[in-house]
Known about the structure:
Elements: E1 2-5, E2 12-17, H1 19-29, H2 48-60, E3 63-68, H3 72-84
Parallel strand pairs: 1-3
Antiparallel strand pairs: 2-3
Helix pairs in contact: 1-2
Amino acid sequence: MLLKCRRDGRGLDVRRLSADDGLAALPLVYKNLGAFDLDRVPGTVMTGAEREAFRELFGRVAVVEVTGGVDFGGLIAIVDKLLSA
């Protein structure tokens, strides 16, 4: 789930992303701090193999973009609907 809510936003909009759309949004969520892979230098660029692993993952799971305002109750309903699908 890619949360792109704004405190001054209105309502909630949910859009299911294709694997390609998820990959296009990856720079917003991909973090390389070196904390989980101690052999990597923090801040190094994602490798082609990592990008392909994300493509494969995004092809198997629902990737959604949520925009609008901060609405925790609405977000819970969205997650509940995704989990029950």
